[in-house]
Amino acid sequence: MTPTRILHVMNVFSDSSISRIVERIIRNLECRDFEWHVSALDEDEGMESVFKSLGAATVHFPLEQNARQALRSYILRHNIDIVHTHTPRTIVETRLALMGMQRRPRHVATKHLLTTPKDRRWGIVFTALDYLSLYLPDHLAAVSGEMAKKVAALPGMDAKRVSMVRNAVPCGDFYQPEKRDAARLDLGFGPDHLVFGYAGRIEPVKLIDLLLRVFADIHALYPNVRLMLVGDGGQRAELEQYTRQLGLADAVSWLGYRDDVPSLLAAMDVYVQPSHNEGLSLSILEAMAAGKPVIATDVGGIREVLTPDQNGLLIAPHSPEALFKSMTVMVAQPDLRTLFGEAARKHVFTEFSLQKMVDAYGKIYQSQIKGNQTP
User: Fold this and answer.
1) What is the CATH number of the domain that holds 54?
2) pLDDT tens digit string along 307-362?
3) How far apart are CA 198 and CA 239, in angstroms?
């Protein structure tokens, strides 16, 4: 049987939630039924070697080198059946590349995040373009139920083109309590330290500056608390300087990009994510799979994962008071930390198994191939 040829188009190959989702789809769908191609619009290597190790063909389409024409030529040359995009930028580039084809592939897009004007510079313009791009693919997969509802309810949107495919993680990979002591020793944490942690992009949308301000107040009350920040991004240098200004250089560990996240999660006591916008955070899922209690803002699809006062604490975004209160609760109540952590792990293992996500994408691919009878 001829395999279905699928081309994933991303902005970059660098390690990110999008790259990890694509890697997990490729790794877990039947290889004999699908032929994988993975591309990026920027000249970075990142996870390219991982995709190659899974048997996927990889290619770069740099925008400064007429990416649109290169993408179009690649699709025609390799007889691509489905182009799967993951960002507004790749949606638009793909749509333009497909225009005028006599037999064009189906266009599937995963919507990882619905942007808001606060997310970035020129936020109003970018948000408008983001929403307009939603009308371009043949099918949209939203990563949370809340997002799927919002997209399906847009004016003129055909709700049949929208489905929900919740993000998921390989749960067993992240529960590694046996690594806790060694990881904490390696990171310089003592047995009496209570460690809050965050893993992800260091960008304005994540509100790490707010976390640092609140942590300064927590540390003044509880000198044994520590904060571990894992990840990189455009705000990192600025916020490292802010950490020194707050007098927290000895209490905050900036670890940058790391490929040993399960060990780092094992070293944490509480995971904190104060973002003002999320889709369905892989980082939160990973922390919960690791058995960690989570403090997170009530945005995007987070409530679909975190049940308040059962497996973590939900707080309002942009609220230092709510974050301070939740962090002090976690410091003062070790039994509650244990209860939330165990409940979090059970919930993610039951409801967010990787196979559910992978099977859902497989069904979308199959339905799109069946529907591709006419251009």
Assistant:
1) 3.40.50.2000
2) 998 999 999 999 999 999 999 999 999 999 999 999 999 999 998 989 899 999 99
3) 14
